[in-house]
Design the sequence.
């Protein structure tokens, strides 16, 4: 039997970390003590009160059946309560919230609700790869918005050609940003709302990192911008805020027609989030938020160790105000991939080459703050002793 993959799969961009993965496996085999700053997956455990809530809910047979498609009423209410408390935004739990099996799931599925073959979506470069892949799976085309240092890693919406705009249905933005760690102000969000209204484009704002911020800085919700709820939706994740990447729960809020259409796609594909996990999500969103402060305090310490250390060694980095990523300019004489290979082979440190997030990420590497301060000190020491 001959197995042939669909054009859909064949047309995906090549996996550019293959060579780096191969080198990493070789180094591990040789017994090298690897410091892995490559992955954006929290190393700290889920807070105990959230695990407790899951334990109790898992024992309740009510929770063993198919959940409601749009999410449990109580979970959706916890989401709107959290929004009110955190952003002072009023949302209707029945019409303006949908529960997701992690925000990645909703991000990947939303293009299926709006993109016809040939339609355009605006996607940032560098950016979280799922935006582009979701659009391509739906048969859409991508127009890349480069995120450049001179624009504070915000996209320039003025330079998009008119013929592209006329065929554009969706756009994805993400602040605080992965991988650049850049943040957006209300002025930018307001610009996006006006642009979306003028051009009839649905905005999908990925807000996975709004709760992970430092020095007292509180990132904004796109929903705080005037008119945002009439042009788009915002994706949130419990993954990074509460160290819950493995639990698979997130949500989207915003324009009712968009939320409804995303829910319609989902009701034909999945059957929602295990209710016991939703109960744990309620405990996370409605419970004491001291755990979030503690998590941020730890990342802030880590950021200071890594970023101050690397700046002292002469590397160029803007100190992140939010996210657990550092976006580091590669020194002269290296490409992103060459510098990542150099670090791996000479220091045992794994970093992600910036071009893996899109061509405009060339010239950078990303290091995640997902190991403890001791290991980060060790990482800085190793780079100091080997040089670059
Ligand atoms: C981690 C991450 C997500 C995915 O989060 P889940 O809710 O775990 O699916 C979405 N967007 C960005 C930018 C991320 O870094």
Sequence:
């Amino acid at each position: 039997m001959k197995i042939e993959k669909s054009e859909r799969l064949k047309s995906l961009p090549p996996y550019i970390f293959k060579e780096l993965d191969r080198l990493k496996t070789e180094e591990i085999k040789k017994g090298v003590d690897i410091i892995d700053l490559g992955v954006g997956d929290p190393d700290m455990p889920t807070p105990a009160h959230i695990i407790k809530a899951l334990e109790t809910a898992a024992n309740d047979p009510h929770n063993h059946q198919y959940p409601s498609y749009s999410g449990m009423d109580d979970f959706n209410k916890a989401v709107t309560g959290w929004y009110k408390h955190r952003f002072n935004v009023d949302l209707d739990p029945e019409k303006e919230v949908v529960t997701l099996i992690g925000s990645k799931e909703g991000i990947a599925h939303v293009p299926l609700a709006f993109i016809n073959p040939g339609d355009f979506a605006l996607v940032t470069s560098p950016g979280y790869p799922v935006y582009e892949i979701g659009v391509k799976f739906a048969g859409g085309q991508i127009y890349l918005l480069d995120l450049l240092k001179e624009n504070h890693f915000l996209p320039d919406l003025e330079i998009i050609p008119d013929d592209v705009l006329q065929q554009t249905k969706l756009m994805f933005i993400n602040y605080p940003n992965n991988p650049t760690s850049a943040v957006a102000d209300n002025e930018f969000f307001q610009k996006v709302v006006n642009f979306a209204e003028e051009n009839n484009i649905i905005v999908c704002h990925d807000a996975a990192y709004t709760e992970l911020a430092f020095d007292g800085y509180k990132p904004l919700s796109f929903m705080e911008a005037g008119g945002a709820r009439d042009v788009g939706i915002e994706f949130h994740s419990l993954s990074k805020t509460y160290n819950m990447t493995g639990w698979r729960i997130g949500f989207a809020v915003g324009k009712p027609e968009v939320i409804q259409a995303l829910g319609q796609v989902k009701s034909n594909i999945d059957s929602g989030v295990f209710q016991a996990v939703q109960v744990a999500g309620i405990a996370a969103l409605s419970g004491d938020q001291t755990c979030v402060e503690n998590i941020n305090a730890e990342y802030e310490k880590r950021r200071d160790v890594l970023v101050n250390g690397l700046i002292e060694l002469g590397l160029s980095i803007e100190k992140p105000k939010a996210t657990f990523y550092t976006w580091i300019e590669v020194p002269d004489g290296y490409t992103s991939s060459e510098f990542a290979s150099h670090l791996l082979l000479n220091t045992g440190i794994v970093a992600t080459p910036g071009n893996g997030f899109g061509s405009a990420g060339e010239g950078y590497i990303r290091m995640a703050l997902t190991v403890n301060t001791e290991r980060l000190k060790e990482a800085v020491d190793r780079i100091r002793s080997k040089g670059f």
About this structure: Residues 40, 102-104, 128, 174, 178, 206, 208, 237, 239-240, 245, 250 surround pyridoxal-5'-phosphate (CB under 6 Å).
